[in-house]
Specification:
alpha+beta, rod-shaped
Length: about 70
């Protein structure tokens, strides 16, 4: 990305994204943080699904063992 300063305000730095659109540094930082939050949320959802799948697998195993015991008792 190329960086240059505006002539009207020395404190604001404008960057050009790969498509050539001017982007304020704050916008770039906000987009980066939003992307990081989305990646974190995706990983959290994946971890939650894994925990849920393990819990259902354990419950199914328990139900199967209990059904076998009850079938033997008959």
């Amino acid at each position: 990305m190329t960086t240059y300063r505006t002539t009207s305000d020395e404190a604001v730095i404008i960057e050009l994204d790969p498509r050539g659109n001017p982007m304020l540094l704050e916008e770039n930082l906000a987009r980066s943080r939003m992307h990081d939050a989305e990646v974190f949320a995706r990983r959290q959802r994946m971890a939650h699904r894994l925990v849920v799948a393990r819990r259902w697998r354990r419950l199914a195993g328990w139900a199967e063992r209990r059904a076998r015991l009850k079938a033997r008792a008959l």
